[in-house]
Specification:
The complex is a heterodimer of chains A (about 140) and B (about 400).
Chain A: H1 6-34, H2 40-65, H3 77-100, H4 108-130
Chain B: H1 13-36, E1 52-53, E2 63-64, H2 66-77, E3 100-101, E4 111-112, H3 114-126, H4 135-138, H5 143-153, H6 181-191, E5 206-210, H7 212-216, H8 224-237, E6 243-248, E7 251-256, E8 259-261, H9 285-292, E9 298-308, H10 321-330, H11 337-340, E10 349-360, E11 363-366, H12 374-380, H13 383-388
Antiparallel strand pairs in B: 1-2, 3-4, 5-10, 6-7, 7-9, 8-9, 9-10, 10-11
The chains are: A mainly alpha (about 140), B alpha+beta (about 400).
Amino acid sequence: MTTLTMHLARKRLAVVWFAGAFVCFFVLLVISFFAENVDPTSLWDWFLPAVVPNLSLIIGVLVYAHRQTQSDTPIDPFLYRLALSLSLLYLALLVLPLLFFPLTGKPLPELLNISRLWLAAVQGLATGVMGAFFVRHDK
Amino acid sequence: MPGLRPATFNADPGSMKNAHHAMALLLVAWLGVLALCPAVAAPVDACIPGYVWREAFPDDHVCVTPAGRDQAAADNQRAAERRTPGGGAYGPDTCKPGFVWREARPQDHVCVTPEVRAQTGRDNSLAHTRRLMPPAAANGGGRRHAEVWSAARETTSPHAPMALPKMRKPLPEAMPVPAPAARETTTMSASFRLPEFPWPPPPYSTRLKLDRDLLIAGQTAPTNGSVAARMEHALAANGYTPLSYYALPDGFVIVTQIERIDARAAPAAKQRWSTQLSPVIPFNLEAYIRALLGKDGDSFRVIAFAFTPTPFTTSGRPVAPDDAMRWVEKGATALPAALAGQPYGSDTVCTALVYEFTISSLGAVSKRPGIFSGEQHLRAAGILDLLERAP
């Protein structure tokens, strides 16, 4: 059984975040290019602040940690599962309105506006626990 | 008095003098009769030009168009044949299927079509805007209004003409002045201020200037109220209820509710007044993709009729679709009496500003320029046709 190290945990969390963000990014790209009767500005205004800060943090720490030796430090599995679960939850809450709004009868901008109510809470939790993995440790 | 005899054409100076006396006496007597007789003044609930009492029931003095009065009379004549023989769930006045109680007043159980009932309700709610202002109230109310009102109350019949205030003694200050609801309504109506419409208006999809003759329809002394009422009638007859009023710097605006339109600019047959979207349930891939790409949109419009003598441009700031949809919620229900009573200026122009939108699963966007012309919109909506008919 592979010991869960900081390096491995960071990689897995980074994959989850980038995969989820990419799905949302792709859907919004399709809407921006091919959809009619839409103002794409409001959609991107909703999406970018929801993922860019965390993705920037992930990228920055991964690059920095690449040069360090602390990445092999064993980590608490519970903390990792918590971070993974909250990240998956947050990204699901991002993707769901984009993919399922035609089934609700509500226009997409209205759904996205409503989603800010719960995204703010979950984003705070997910970002907080991600800090355990994506924080620069200086010697 | 010696010799009050009928005047004769006699060269005798004495008889001429008597004739003059007789004439003078007759004149004085005539003036005295005039002084004692109450002057005929307009009843307090007289209608503005172009409107008449509906008389759906005795003492029904709600002001309607002559066509509305004819409709009420015709409905009264046919009331018996529209009732269910032998009564029904609502008693002996139960209407046959397709008919409802008119309810011009709570006890009015004359059976009419639903459209007539809706129009009756509107006429009741607009009644106060169609009344001729009592002269005393128009001059500022207060004590003078109290004198007029008090004089009116002294008559034996509620519909007897009022006496002119100067013919009666003013009330002493200590006597309580009757405070009828009409006086309070006049005061409240006089102080009510219409909300302001964004002016210059936001960029519109299209516009149409309405011919003056369509709005005044032969009225010799049109007022803002009579013109607005005529426009309301044309709109209400085509289903445009509710309407909202806004103020302009030198005029007013009537705004319609947002409505769904079809490919010919006519009101949609289904869900005309609803902006709700239909969810893709049960799931259908084609419908889902159409919704995802916003290709499930329908066209909508809001019409704002601006009455102003001043030419205008646009503000350059587009109105958000949500804001335009809420115009009808934020406006007033009617013109204040003071504004309604003002003469409709010879230079006042009515311009219909049409705001078109597309509402889809991806939200609402304005369409500028619009697909249809202003005339196409108003013709398809039935508004122009009704205005072009005889008043």
